[in-house]
Amino acid sequence: xxxxxxxxxxxxxxxNIFYYHLVETPPLSExxxxxxxxxxxxxITASTSSVAVAEAVHKVMLAEVVARHxxxxxxxxxxxxRHRQLIATLKDTLKCPHSCVR
Length: 102
Hints:
The protein has helices at about 15-20, 30-40, 50-70, 75-80, 85-90, and strands at about 10, 45. The protein is about 50% helix and about 5% strand. The protein has one domain (about 1-90). It is mainly α.
């Protein structure tokens, strides 16, 4: 789907595109990473909003909590509000080596 975007197109990047690029989720991650490579090579232009970035960071944070602590996704955001110490254990969310975040 993303690979079919014609060169020169200007795209809006929503939170899910960031999320699947940053959180390994085959087969979705490869397509999203290829999209960002095309943006980096200036074959297509992309923009986003602070709301989309905030939502993506939130989703990546929740994915890390699930992976790190083996918690169920159901009710996870509310659980984190009650147990804020879990947020302090996050390491990957705050350091993004990917080229999509500059």
